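Project outcomes to date are best conveyed with an example. Our students and postdoctoral researchers have been running inverse folding experiments weekly, and each run begins with a structure described purely in tokens. The record below, which covers 192 residues, was selected by the lab manager from last quarter's runs and is presented without edits.
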């Protein structure tokens, strides 16, 4: 049982039940000190070594329908010098806002293609983490420039231009999806 938990990294009781392991076995391992409770409904082995992105893996387990966006995605793609205190998660327009003890979540509501396009899946601590691509994140920053600040969006665009030289096509596509082409164009012209 412990080997299965170790192979999954961070688990929820429902993950184990899907593999035929009952909650009583999980709670027995918890009492014996072989498994630790990370937070409500989230467990890992006692010897689990968290990585720098442990928070992303934890939030991905707790909010499986969410996609990391805006400042959190910028930080993930190394497109900003900002170090956000909150974790930014995109949710569908009518999804219920999750309640976590920590970290603090900032929820952005997306709908249609603005939510479903540009999602990349990465593995962090053996957990599938959904993050918007770098180009989609830059377009989102211009869409939410009033919440995060235009200076952050411009910095992200500048860093994106340096790191992804051939990414202009993707950026233009996501600017159309996010309906920020007119907002983004003057900044692109100034950088050219």
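After processing, the design step wrote out the following sequence:
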């Amino acid at each position: 049982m412990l080997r299965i938990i170790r192979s999954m990294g961070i688990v929820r009781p429902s993950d184990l039940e899907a593999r035929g392991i009952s909650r009583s076995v999980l709670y027995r391992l918890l009492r014996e000190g072989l498994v630790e409770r990370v937070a409500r409904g989230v467990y890992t082995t006692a010897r689990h070594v968290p990585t720098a992105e442990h928070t992303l893996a934890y939030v991905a387990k707790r909010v499986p329908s969410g996609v990391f966006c805006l400042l959190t995605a910028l930080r993930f793609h190394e497109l900003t010098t900002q170090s956000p205190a909150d974790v930014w998660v995109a949710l569908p327009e009518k999804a219920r806002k999750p309640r976590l003890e920590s970290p603090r979540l900032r929820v952005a509501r997306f709908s249609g293609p603005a939510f479903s396009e540009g999602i990349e899946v990465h593995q962090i601590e053996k957990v599938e983490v959904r993050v918007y691509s770098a180009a989609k994140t830059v377009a989102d920053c211009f869409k939410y420039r009033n919440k995060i600040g235009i200076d952050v969006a411009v910095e992200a665009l500048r860093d994106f231009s340096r790191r992804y030289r051939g990414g202009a096509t993707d950026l233009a596509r996501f600017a159309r999806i996010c309906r920020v082409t007119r907002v983004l164009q003057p900044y692109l012209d100034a950088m050219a």
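The mean pLDDT is 89. The domain at 54-191 is CATH 3.30.460 (Beta Polymerase; domain 2). The training component of this project remains on track.
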